[in-house]
Design goal:
By secondary structure, the protein is α+β, with helices and mostly antiparallel strands. It is 32% helix and 26% strand. It is built from 10 helices and 17 strands. α2 runs antiparallel to α7, α7 packs antiparallel against α8 and α8 runs antiparallel to α9.
């Protein structure tokens, strides 16, 4: 399962969202989950209110990290991973809900999205372990696969608690937590009565209302080029969320072959298809994040068929001998603007 590779072209996104006739807009920024966050709010407020909101946003995101980070030893997920118990282990309601949604996406995608895939990601050098310079041996892949499988992980959010079938099951929500964090910030803004905003965390978006000029938020999608950043498409959004997954920012090459961070949980190896990037529009950033990952792993045919069948708004970018081919599901076309560049 990929770490974040393909993402929204954030700099251009902010320029597009801020352009217009000079109506008031303010932006709050900071760092979280190893990346940056940006919250744009259409409207004006006092400096004191901004400072208070900044503090509340940082607090909400710190709580998400304290629940779901594998880098914090006392987080819910770290304690669950470290426990040798196969009984129910108490976690926060938010952590349980996050895993429950992830399990639903795993079931829908037949395991293409799998939050237990961490041992394989680490083995291939795309996790916190040292960077890999060549493929691991088959025996190591087989051993890691023995620890992977979303059906080995169980939720009971009435408690709330998680359970694993064997002590060495390892849960990693890092390919999903940024979207979850964007949703938590959106909930905070809604609670504060803010009705026009754009939240972005590491390329995952949650939007509400309109920009400062009363227009839909204009969002740019990046072309999946290995070098440099260019726009592929612009969509106009409101009251929704969007996430992009891609294979083109994080990879290594060995003996003339490219190995992407997009690990297939079924084979234990990087995918070999030509799908470079998937963008999904959905009701929450967490769901969009998970579905974009699942569709990228499934590939250009199986992934597209699933998205079309389930009426998922998805935009696929495929590598071809002449550049890139684009495919959009019927649900995505409701948001689509014509391509803005020739490729």
């Amino acid at each position: 399962m990929p770490r974040r590779g393909g993402r929204i072209l954030v700099t251009m996104l902010l320029m597009l969202a801020a352009c217009g006739g000079g109506a008031p807009t303010y932006e709050l920024t900071g760092r979280t989950m190893g990346t940056q966050f940006s919250v744009q709010i259409a409207g004006s407020t006092s400096g004191g209110e901004r400072a208070k909101l900044q503090q509340e946003i940082e607090g909400a995101l710190a709580t998400v990290e304290q629940q779901m980070s594998t880098y914090l030893l006392q987080s819910d997920i770290s304690k669950f991973n470290a426990s040798p118990s196969t009984g129910w282990i108490a976690v926060s309601a938010s952590t349980c809900h996050a895993v429950e949604v992830a399990e639903d996406v795993s079931e829908l995608s037949n395991g293409a999205f799998d939050v237990t895939v961490g041992p394989l990601v680490n083995l291939w050098g795309f996790g916190p372990d040292p960077v890999q310079v060549k493929p691991p041996p088959d025996s190591a892949i087989s051993a890691a696969l023995e620890r992977v499988g979303y059906r080995r992980l169980h939720t009971d959010c009435a408690q709330p608690a998680l359970r694993k079938d064997s002590p060495d099951v390892y849960v990693d929500l890092s390919a999903y937590a940024k979207g979850f964090g964007a949703d938590r910030v959106a909930e905070l803004l809604d609670f504060r009565g803010i009705r026009n905003y754009l939240v972005e965390i590491g390329g995952e978006l949650r939007l509400r209302g309109r920009d400062a000029d009363g227009e839909l938020w204009a969002v740019a999608i990046e072309a999946p080029a290995d070098n440099g950043r260019t726009l592929s498409r612009i969509v106009k959004l409101t009251d929704t969320a969007m996430a992009t997954s891609g294979d083109y920012r994080n990879f290594f090459e060995y003996e003339g072959r490219r190995y992407s961070h997009t690990i297939d949980p079924h084979t234990g190896r990087p995918t070999t298809h030509n799908l470079a990037s998937v963008t999904v529009i959905s009701e929450t950033a967490a769901l969009a994040d998970a579905m974009a990952t699942a569709l990228l792993v499934l590939g250009p045919d199986e992934g597209f068929d699933l998205a079309a069948r389930e009426q998922i708004a998805a935009y696929f970018q495929l590598r071809t001998g002449n550049g890139f081919e684009e495919r959009t599901t019927p649900a995505f076309r409701a948001f689509d603007e014509p391509p803005i560049i020739e490729r």
